[in-house]
Amino acid sequence: MTAQTQATGDFMIDAHMHFGDFVYKGRNWSSYEEYVKAAESVGVKRFCAVPIGKHSDFANKSTPDNESILKLAKRDKRVIPVFWLNILDFSKKERSSLDQFFAVKLHPDLGEFAIDDPRVIRIVNDIDLPVFVHTNESKDHSSLQRMTNLAKRFPKKKFIAIHSGSVTRTFFKLHDYAIPDNLYFDVSGVQYELILKKLHSMVGADRMIFGSDYPFGDPRVALERIRVIARNKREFDRMTERNIAELLGL
Ligand SMILES: [Zn+2]
What's this model's pTM, rounded to 2 decimal places? Predict the structure, then answer.
């Protein structure tokens, strides 16, 4: 075990956030400075960063600028690079840089492919990294049922359901799922705390993870969510630091 995973609450890691421009109608809604200021203000020490993907990446079979995250990680040692993987554009060139990343992220909503699509299964089988997957229970292709199917196929790999299914329907559906031990849940972008409370009662703090989804979310708000669901300091430390550190092998 590393020094980081032994630390208790002093080494909080934001497990899911984005660096890169998010421009809409002439304004950029994302900045490195804004994020770092917010993260530092609540004691977050490291951040798992992915670039920002767009619908056009799937239309054009392109991949967001993963290189920019590697460059940032060289300048700022707090940045833990996560690879934004487009299943339609996973070429040799893309694969060659994977060893510099700690995990990959898949976005079935933007790409409109099912989480347990045979193309996803082939890629996941080929790569040796934890897999973060955007989940949104309001769409069949990104449901937690499909997330569960994928995680069950690879019991030795670790998966994080980003947004934990996200919407109210998740609360009612959770009991239908046989959730495998290698599936973890991120608290960003979840519609109601009730969903997180139910998840906590089912999988416990050992499988829930603090993530902000900046610039869509904010680390200060996400951390408050963790405070709401943690029953004690051990659980708080698990969710803000130890689970993700162990999962990524930090
Ligand atoms: Zn995200």
Answer: 0.93
For residue 5, name the pLDDT band (cuts at 50, 70, 90).
very low
CATH code where residue 184 lies: 3.20.20.140
- Ligand 1 center to residue 101 CA distance, Å? 17
User: How many A from CA of 159 to the centre of ligand 1?
Assistant: 15
Q: Are 113 and 87 in contact (CB under 8 A)?
A: yes
Domains of the chain: total? 1
User: How many C-beta atoms surround the C-beta of residue 194 within 10 A?
Assistant: 12
Looking at residue 112, its pLDDT comes to 82
Structure tokens at 207: 């499988």
CA of 2 from ligand 1 middle (Å) equals: 27
- Which pLDDT value is given to residue 250? 92
